[in-house]
Amino acid sequence: EMFEAFELFDRNADGFIDFKEMKLLLRSLGLRVNNHEARNVFGDADEKGTGRIDFDSFRIAMAKDLQKREELESKLEHKMAFTLMDTDKTGSLSSENIREAANRVGESITDEQIKNMIEDAAGEGATTVSFQQYSNLMNEVQLW
């Protein structure tokens, strides 16, 4: 689909597109991008600074851009979940926060399970989990 769209926007069929064509191409693929985002993608693809990119360069730049978007989306999801669990607004999750979150979704959880969860995220002997520790753990879980 991406290659077909690239060919469609390569109006003179020379195997290259310019910035304006690439921006239209991105929108035709259903990506909502502003000028700044489009320039970033184009700049990543146009390593030689010629003002034109070929399909392989475009494909590689798109893969990088999509990965960045997925990472940002994942971090936002983690932040929302963390904030919902941090009911006492301390900036960290305690065993009580985790128990409350489990109860809200109908899960029963033991003290030992909570202790293990906290230690998995924050290290042995820890009693709370920071946002960064929580986010890191969620990223590890997603890799499974």
TrEMBL record:
It comes from the Eukaryota. Keywords: Calcium, Repeat. One of its GO terms (cellular component) is myosin II complex. The keyword Cell cycle does not apply. The keyword 4Fe-4S does not apply. GO terms for molecular function: calcium ion binding. Residues 1-32, 33-68, 73-108 form the EF-hand domain. PANTHER family: EF-HAND SUPERFAMILY PROTEIN, MYOSIN LIGHT CHAIN 1, 3. This is EF-hand domain-containing protein.
